[in-house]
Amino acid sequence: MSTQAHHAALQGRETRRMLAFDSPVSTRWRITRQRWSPFATALASVVVVVALGKLVMNWLDVYLVFFGDQPEVDPSNITAYRVWGAIAVAALLCGVVAHALNRRRRVLGSFWQALLVACGTGIVVISYIPGAVHLPAPEHVEDGYSAPPCYSGGDNDECVGG
User: Fold this and answer.
1) Residues 123 and 54: beta-carbon distance below 8 Å
2) Which of 79, 91, 145, 152 could crosslink 48 through cysteines, CB 3.0-4.6 Å?
3) What single DSSP character describes residue 103?
4) Average pLDDT score over residue span 32-60
C-alpha cells in the first residue's frame, strides 16, 4: 500500500468518525428556538420593576412618618406586600426561565437578569412588612427549672436549694 493510499484511508476513517460524532444523539430532546422568549423576558422585566416599585412604595407608606409618630401597619399594607411580593418572585422566575430558553441570549441580557434577581431578592427581603408572613411562635417547653428567682440570699424556705 502506498503512502498516499494509506493517508487517504486514515483520512476517510477520521471523516467517518467526525461525522458520527457531529450528529445529535436525540433531536427530540433538543431545545428549539422559542420565538416568544425575548418578548417574555422583556415583559417579565417590566413586571418585576413595577412590582418592586410597588413594594418600595408600600414600605414607605408604613415607615415614612414625621414629627415622632409611630409607624402603623394596616391590613392593606400586609395584603399589598403579599400580593406584590408574590408577583415579583413569580416574574423573576419567569424572566430567568424565558431568558434561559432564548438561544440568542446575549451577555448584557444575562447581566440584566442577574442584576434583577439580586436587587429583586434584596428589595423583597428589605421591604418586609411585619405580620405579612405568619411564623409559628416557639413553644414553651417545661424543663423543670421554672422556680421563681431567689433574691434573699438563699437562707429562706422559699428559695430552692438554699
Assistant:
1) no
2) 91
3) T
4) 89
Q: Judge whether 99 and 113 are in contact, CB under 8 Å.
A: yes
User: Per-residue pLDDT for 28 more than 70?
Assistant: no
Other CB atoms within a 10 A radius of the CB of residue 24 amount to 8
Q: What is the CA radius of gyration of the chain?
A: 32
All three cell numbers of 11: 483520512
How many other C-beta atoms lie within 10 A of the C-beta of residue 141? 5
CA nearest to 55, candidates 74, 33, 77, 23: 77
| Cα 27 from Cα 24, distance rounded (Å) | 6
Cα distances (angstroms) measured from residue 160 to each of 3, 141, 142, 146, 153: 103, 20, 17, 11, 11
Question: And the C-alpha cell for 71?
Answer: 409607624
- If you search the block for the grid coordinates 411562635, which residue do you land on? 137
The closest alpha carbon to 148, from 138, 140, 139, 157, belongs to 157
Would you state the cell numbers that stand for residue 2, as one nine-digit string? 502506498
Predicted TM-score (pTM) of this structure: 0.61
Written as one letter, the residue type at 104 is R
| pLDDT, tens digit (0-9, with 9 covering 90-100), for 79-113 | 999 999 999 999 999 999 888 888 777 888 889 99
